[in-house]
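Problem: given the chain below (351 residues), write out its structure.
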Amino acid sequence: MKKALSYVVTAMLCAPAMMANAQEENEALTISGSADAYYKYDFSKKPNIPTSFASDQNSVSIGMVDLILGKKVGKASFVGDLSFGPRGQGQSLLSASDGNSFHIQNLYMSYAFTDKFSMTAGFMGTFIGYEIISPTGNFNYSTSYLFSAGPFQNAGIKANYQFTPKVGLMVGLFNDWNKYTDDNNGVTDIGAQLSLAPVEGWNAYLNFLKGPYSGTIYDLTTSYQVTTAFKVGINAADYSVGDDQGGYDGGALYLQYGFTDAFALGLRGEYFKTKDIKEADVVTTAGTKVAAFTLSANIKAGPLTVIPEFRYDRNSAESFEPYWVTTPFINSDMNPTKGASQFALALVYAF
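Solution.
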């Protein structure tokens, strides 16, 4: 790994000289982003479903303001993505010294050595999974268990090579999950992504990330635009934390149909299972299973999307346990129950 890192550093040091000899085209600074807010009501009258975002019960609440800056000069470019609000701070980012002031979603620089080969370094949204933090990138407003289990960000350096318009490969060296700096462990993880586009409208990504502290995850993300109106997506993952130390596996199916340019319906069905945690071949924390179904509508009015959403989750847990997803849902009497349902209404404005 150290030898590979030395090659990466050498390439980065050579980049300024190559830039000086290249014809530079100064593109304008781009500004984009989103703002979102929501209302959620859990029918048990208690906060229940433990996935990310849309967590406040019977409240009109804010998500975040996301501000994305980008600029390209010649072959060099940068992206800076700042978020303000619980969705883009304490609910998805590492906390700073005051507990909730870290704002950077993405901060990275790239250099395109050729039309096919580029390198990127910095703090980046993870390449693992189907859903992302920004609500503009998801059809459903509440997120899946696979998304909530992480990772959210990867800090490191990666190389991208596009063999053909249909086949690309990324390999990279990263810090431990969700760490913008890692003085204790250093660069420990290795990751890769094989991207495929077999036919028009079909994209698939085979993802891998492994580290001595974070564990090992294999992830498949694919989507196919069957017709102009109908889209199918799949996310499947397997994650392990060492030998018998837990993890999860699961899959999600996304079905979306656009009736008009202004109205679409989408159904997400998910199965998520946590793995047993063992000590000396004895199960100390038993894994559980969750099945979740989320029906969302996207109603568009220009840059504004209104998302009414109904969700039902069913958990196999029957008693309270320390592991987060093992904890069963609760009813209005604060007693354990296997099912939970909620309604949410979200507003997402993209700019």
